[in-house]
Structure formats: C-alpha cells, structure tokens
Amino acid sequence: LSGLDPAQPYFQGTPIEVRLDKTDADFVDVIHTDSAPTIPNLGFGIRPAIGHIDFYPNGGEEMPGCDKNALSQIVDIDGIWEGTRDFVACNHLRSYKYYSDSIIYPDGFLGYPCASYDLFQEGNCFPCPEGGCPNMGHYADRHKDQFKNDFVKLYLNTAETKDFPLWRYKITVTLSGKSKVRGYVNVALYGEDGNTKQYQITKGTLRPDNSYTAYIDADVNVGDITKVKFLWNNNWINPTFPKLGAETITVEVGENR
C-alpha cells in the first residue's frame, strides 16, 4: 500500500484507525512531499513516519520547481488546468508525479536511510547500506524485508521538473600544481549509459595537494564509469597563467558502493 503524501489536516496525531498506518497492509510505503506544518505553512501532508518505510524527497517539505512565480506556474507546459492545480498545491501533487516517474525509472529514486535531511545533504548517510537503498515509488516493495526497525526514514533529492529522478555520487578531487589560485573546479562523468553535465566540486582558493569532496545528484545514471572530465577556471584574469591539474579523481557510486 503506497501513501502519496497522506493528508495532515484532521489526520495527523489521530489514532491508527483513523489515518494511514503500517498495520493497514503487509507493506506500507509513504512519500512525504508537503509535510510542513499546516499553520502557518499550509502543508497538506502528514509529517511523522507512519509506514514500514517513509520517503522524504528534498526533505519532505518544499519541492524543487514549486517556487516558480504564479504566472509561469499557471501557464504550464501541460496546460492551464494542470498549472493552476500546481500553483495551489504543487508540493502536495509532486507525490503522484514522482510515483508515475518511478514506474519508468526502476533504477531511480534511491532513498538513503538517514536520521535527518541535513545529515543526508552533508553526505553522512552515503553510500547505500549493504542491502542497497529502497526505490521510492512503484518498486519500493523490493526492499520490504530489509528494514525491521519501527520506522525508517529515507531521504533523496529530485529534479525541478520531469524527469525527476537523480543519482547520487561522491566525487573527491586532489589537485596538483605549483601555486594556489582562486577559482572553481568542475567535473563531468561519462559512462556506458550516458554522461552528466558539469558539476561544481569546489570554489574559492584552490591549493595544490589539497583534496576537495562534493556530493552531486546527477540527472543521469551513467552506469559503469569510463571517463571523468576535469575543468578548472580562474575567477579573474591572471597574467601569470597558473597551471593546475587533477592528481587523482575518485568517484563513489551511492547505489552500489
């Protein structure tokens, strides 16, 4: 039984006979997309974990792409009716859009078990555990026997618009060169199933022999990595033409460790 942002008003804090609960089915998975307090934030979705596994995409309160201005939201690519609904209840309605995308992407929407969204963002809950990460949405029941705890909260990030799934990678770059410079470092991943755009690993002072780590949520699952593209840039014109390289680049795939 899959709960798509189950309702908060009149249901949160009520007995389990009234609201959705893990006792309602052999396996209950829940997607929380609008769990901010109803007052004053107008959150429509229930906040506590209530299923066997509970997914909190983007932290479960504010969904990317829902903060568009009113006109761009209402004059939506899917038509005025769809756009108007999204303007009124965009976060709440993301739950069914994620679910429908999950049918098309059986390898997408990996939920990382974590104590909080902040810890997930910092990379503390990376990579997936030994048994793998459950997939939010249609294929969540693949992992129905993996978690035996009372409640399991799972976190992930999504894209702003369809297609919504993202795949998480940890990238560490160790720089080489002779002198420090100011600028930024970008990396793109290439693999057997596609390649990503460039993602910024660090910006500011770049010091040779230092290592810089970033967690990226890529819009492509590249599969087995075949190549990594490294690019660095000065923040301003430097007449000495400093040289900077990558001594090593390490990529860890969240899905398979």
From TrEMBL:
<keyword id="KW-0443">Lipid metabolism</keyword>
<dbReference type="GO" id="GO:0047714">
    <property type="term" value="F:galactolipase activity"/>
</dbReference>
<comment type="pathway">
    <text>Glycerolipid metabolism; triacylglycerol degradation.</text>
</comment>
<dbReference type="GO" id="GO:0042589">
    <property type="term" value="C:zymogen granule membrane"/>
</dbReference>
<keyword id="KW-0964">Secreted</keyword>
<dbReference type="InterPro" id="IPR000734">
    <property type="entry name" value="TAG_lipase"/>
</dbReference>
<dbReference type="InterPro" id="IPR036392">
    <property type="entry name" value="PLAT/LH2_dom_sf"/>
</dbReference>
<dbReference type="GO" id="GO:0043005">
    <property type="term" value="C:neuron projection"/>
</dbReference>
<comment type="pathway">
    <text>Glycolipid metabolism.</text>
</comment>
<keyword id="KW-1015">Disulfide bond</keyword>
<protein>
    <recommendedName>
        <fullName>Pancreatic lipase-related protein 2</fullName>
        <ecNumber>3.1.1.26</ecNumber>
    </recommendedName>
</protein>
<feature type="domain" description="PLAT">
    <location>
        <begin position="167"/>
        <end position="257"/>
    </location>
</feature>
<dbReference type="InterPro" id="IPR001024">
    <property type="entry name" value="PLAT/LH2_dom"/>
</dbReference>
<keyword id="KW-0966">Cell projection</keyword>
<dbReference type="InterPro" id="IPR013818">
    <property type="entry name" value="Lipase"/>
</dbReference>
<dbReference type="GO" id="GO:0005615">
    <property type="term" value="C:extracellular space"/>
</dbReference>
<dbReference type="Pfam" id="PF00151">
    <property type="entry name" value="Lipase"/>
</dbReference>
<keyword id="KW-0378">Hydrolase</keyword>
<keyword id="KW-0968">Cytoplasmic vesicle</keyword>
<keyword id="KW-0442">Lipid degradation</keyword>
<dbReference type="GO" id="GO:0004465">
    <property type="term" value="F:lipoprotein lipase activity"/>
</dbReference>
<comment type="similarity">
    <text>Belongs to the AB hydrolase superfamily. Lipase family.</text>
</comment>
<dbReference type="GO" id="GO:0016042">
    <property type="term" value="P:lipid catabolic process"/>
</dbReference>
<dbReference type="InterPro" id="IPR029058">
    <property type="entry name" value="AB_hydrolase_fold"/>
</dbReference>
<dbReference type="Pfam" id="PF01477">
    <property type="entry name" value="PLAT"/>
</dbReference>
